[in-house]
Amino acid sequence: MNRRAFFVSDRTGITAETLGASLLTQFPDIDFKRTNIPFVTNELAAHAAVATIQHAAEDDAIAPLVFSTLTDPVIQRIVATSSPHFFDLFGTFIAPLEIALARQSSHTAGRMHGVFDSGAYDKRMQALNFTLSHDDGLSPRDLKEADLVLLGVSRSGKTPTCLYLAMHYSLKTANYPLTDDDFGSIKLPKILQPCRDKLYGLTIAPEQLSRIRRERRPTGDYSSLVRCRAEIAMAEAMFRTENIQYIDSTSISIEEIAATVVRDMGLH
Amino acid sequence: MNRRAFFVSDRTGITAETLGASLLTQFPDIDFKRTNIPFVTNELAAHAAVATIQHAAEDDAIAPLVFSTLTDPVIQRIVATSSPHFFDLFGTFIAPLEIALARQSSHTAGRMHGVFDSGAYDKRMQALNFTLSHDDGLSPRDLKEADLVLLGVSRSGKTPTCLYLAMHYSLKTANYPLTDDDFGSIKLPKILQPCRDKLYGLTIAPEQLSRIRRERRPTGDYSSLVRCRAEIAMAEAMFRTENIQYIDSTSISIEEIAATVVRDMGLH
Fold it and tell me: Are residues B147 and B243 in the same domain?
């Protein structure tokens, strides 16, 4: 079964999409076709959104689901006419919040992603620049500056996780690739010893690692399952011996890895 | 005035935090102290969350706000006892959705960030790897592979925007820095002519650009306001002459720049 779902918002639509998509996962046997309609900031855009949604309703001969995070009551009322299945993700909570806080809300457009805080922006940029410039290569001085250092074998997911942590948590995240040189013993590499409290390990199923490495280098020892198994076994042994917390990234998303690291390290 | 707000979820807490924070912006004169309690997946964790929240209530002598995206009804009921100001961001919509879709929900833990779709994962990784390996430097072949190419002067925000577009929209995003060499005329650089339909420009207020550049190189012509003004004027003239859509990144977040680019280019 198919069903259309629209996410309408006055800014980027990130909030509407995030919660809306999460709600839709509760109905796994329906194949939802999703459309984001962002930046609905005036009546003209609201009427255009209604036309788009009603056009889809006619095509499908069934009313689509519409999820809204619109904050302006006038625009909201226009878009609400688009479908009988209109879900007001934002306004639903405003009245009870006004009661809880004993004051009126400001009814301004969702400022979550709009407000410009130059201090926070600078911090985020510094974290991103740090992370980008220290991808696979660290001096002891860099390690001192880092908020966090991820350890793992090549292709275990360090780089995307570092970037996510920098982008979303403004953490200066460095990464240290564990290589053959480090596996002479299962002791922590010397350069990492002074920053033991910043270390976090990533591991991954050897089969998945082998698959990912084959995409980069289709043949040779680097991507062989035997080699992947050996490297992962050594890395995990090191994490355990050295009491480094670690996570298996095999079947979870970057968002979840990052949130877990932040929680485990008490960084948020 | 201060008030505590807790975001409780059974996964990363991203959804609860995103919507909760957006709701709180409607009460700008209250200074909210926010705490994320992620991964509340069993009764033990639920009771621990309740204890944390009630401890805060005693400290503050006022009940905190609690925003929940918990999906398990048993865990949800436990956490709901933590405060009279409990906002069920998820469950509130499940019953009306069940009516709209004429079926029961699965009541499984929020799978938004948990489900592992290896096709989507690969696409995201390919986009990230492409973007990382083509930061400031492109061959004609690379341009052919790109989904999108951002243009702008040095430090106008190209790199973080590219990374965000790759991370969140799985778009292979390249960037082309406009330099003195390109400003001999206001014509499009030759290498970019075959991919005209993939181009999008970034501009920024000269004062902001100068400030950002000074952080990198405190002295010299590179960060001078005169130079920044001249570069921005040339870049904007090129965008207009060549009919390239562009956005002023001065006072908006990376999320908004990215969502605007995706919308304007019809990529989502």
Answer: yes
